[in-house]
Amino acid sequence: MKGQRRFLPLSIVLTIQVAMEFTAAWLFVRKMEHEWMYHIYAPIDYALFCIYFMQLVSPKYRRWIVVSTIIFALASASISYWYYHFESFPGANINTEGVLICIICTYVLLNLDVRRYDAIYKNPDFWISLGVIIFFGGTFFTNGVYTYLNEIDKVQAKKLFSIVNTANLIQYTCYIIGFLWAIPRRSSIQLS
Description:
Elements: H1 8-29, H2 36-54, H3 59-84, H4 91-110, H5 124-152, H6 154-164, H7 167-182
Helix pairs in contact: 1-2, 2-3, 2-4, 3-4, 4-5, 5-6, 5-7
C-alpha cells in the first residue's frame, strides 16, 4: 500500500498472527504442545499494536504507551517465568495485553478525526480498533480459564478454545475492511 507506511506495524503483527495460528494448528493436529509460543508472542504483539496506535494519539499519551510497553514486557516475562513456567497457556498475560490495548483503542475511537472522512465506517482506524476490541473482548473469559480447563480435560478445553477463538475471524474481517478503506481513492472523472 504505497503511501500507507503507518500500517507497517499492523502488517507485521498480522503476519506474525497468521503464522502463529497456522503453527498452533499444525502442532495441535500433531498432538504437540503449542502454548509456549504465546509467551513469546504476547509482548511482541502488544509492542507492535502500540507502535501502530501511537501514531493516532497525542504526544502526551505516546509517552504513556511507551512506558506501558516496557512494563508489560517485564510483567509478561515475569508471569510467564514464575507462574506459567513457559509451559501452559498464558491467559493472564494475554488478558492484560487485551485490557491495555482496548484502553488505547477506546481512546482512539473516542478521538477519531471525524472531519477527515465523511462517514465513520470509511475510517480505517475505526475498523482496526473495532477488530481489536471485539477479539480481546470475545476471548477474555476463555483466556482466563483455559489453563484451569486444560488441567481438568485437555480435549474439551481445546475444543472450547477453538470455538471461542472464532473471534479471530471477526478481527481479521475488521482489519481487511480497514485496509480496504485505507486505499487511496481517485476522484471520479468528469466529462466536459
